[in-house]
Specification:
Largest sheet: 5 strands, parallel
Number of helices: 10
Number of domains: 2
Strand content: 15-25%
CATH superfamily of the largest domain: NAD(P)-binding Rossmann-like Domain
Strand order of the largest sheet: 5-4-6-7-10
CATH topology of the largest domain: Rossmann fold
Distance between the termini: 48 Å
CATH architecture of the largest domain: 3-Layer(aba) Sandwich
Shape: globular
CATH class of the largest domain: Alpha Beta
Order of helices and strands: HEHEHEHHHEHEHEEEEHEH
Helix content: 25-40%
């Protein structure tokens, strides 16, 4: 079973080494280390965990990391002022607004106030539109990470049928676009909660990407024997037998699907590490002016 597992952590570690070498080269040439900032509002546990992982990852490749922690009561006006401040701060190459934001703040308004050249999450309408048109842009970290994971694990994509479960703007829709692009060259079917005959479609997939947000949704009978299965889901489930008091599961019934698939990503340790390293990749591009020349 071991050779079936796509080790996202190992691939992310390799990418980190590549990024660290580029950062070291920048420093050798008298340039500043890339600087990634994050804004987090309130005390959401999952958000805090993600931001601390991002900080640790930044330091591991020689990047600078800043975190702005704001109280839950922060107003929309105060958030827009923070975004304006970060847009103008020449020392910060890129930054993220950690989602979700409190309900009294309009997420779209905040995200689209981010300067596109600092939008390393790739969430602004400008970067989303540029990606749709195949122009240079910052690609959202999880979709970028999924494509890198597939490429670097040696999965053949040219002419293959990819089925994506989930149509969110953060994962499903962008990964469907990326998998159909030249250089990847897959034929893509995008499914969602209203799709009819869903198991019939998923069984046609050479590569099945599950980002539907329902724990254990993909069962073995939905997977074509020999398919590659990429599990994007992250669900924290109470588990008294675990030292942490919980376990992390994905959108795929892993124990059963691994018997059918030729390759599969575990949860945790699959797509998750790739999301963070992809954010570092975007920050490096922002610092170098690769997407938006300085």
């Amino acid at each position: 079973m071991e050779n079936k597992i796509i080790d996202g952590k190992a691939i992310a570690d390799q990418m980190k080494k590549e990024i660290a070498a580029e950062v070291a080269d920048m420093l050798d040439h008298g340039l500043n280390a890339p600087h990634l900032a994050a804004v987090i509002v309130g005390d959401d546990g999952a958000s805090q965990t993600y931001v601390s992982s991002k900080e640790k990852a930044c330091h591991s490749v020689g990047m600078i990391s800043s975190v702005y922690r704001l109280p839950e009561r922060t107003t929309e006006k105060e958030m827009l002022d923070m975004v304006d401040f970060l847009n103008k701060d020449s020392e910060i190459d890129g930054y993220i607004i950690q989602l979700p934001l409190p309900k009294h703040i309009d997420e779209n308004k905040i995200i689209n106030a981010i300067a596109p050249e600092k939008d390393v999450d790739g969430f602004t309408s400008i970067n989303a539109g540029r990606m749709q048109l195949g122009l240079p842009c910052f690609v959202p970290a999880t979709p970028f990470g999924i494509v890198e994971l597939i490429k670097r694990s040696g999965v053949e994509t040219e002419g293959k049928h990819v089925v994506v479960l989930g149509r969110s703007n953060i994962v499903g829709t962008p990964v469907a676009i990326l998998m159909s692009r030249k250089g990847v060259d897959s034929t893509v079917t995008l499914c969602h909660s209203r799709t009819k005959n869903l198991p019939e479609l998923t069984r046609q997939a050479d590569i099945l990407i599950a980002a539907i947000g329902k724990q254990g949704f993909v069962t073995a009978d939905m997977v074509k024997p020999g398919a590659t299965v990429i599990d994007v889901g992250i669900h924290r489930i109470a588990d008294e037998t675990s030292p942490k008091g919980y376990k992390i599961l994905g959108d795929v019934d892993y124990d059963e699907v691994i018997k059918v698939a030729s390759k599969i990503t575990p949860v945790p340790g699959g797509v998750g590490p790739m999301t963070i390293v992809s954010l570092l990749h975007n920050t490096l591009m922002a610092a170098k002016g690769t997407v938006y020349p300085k």
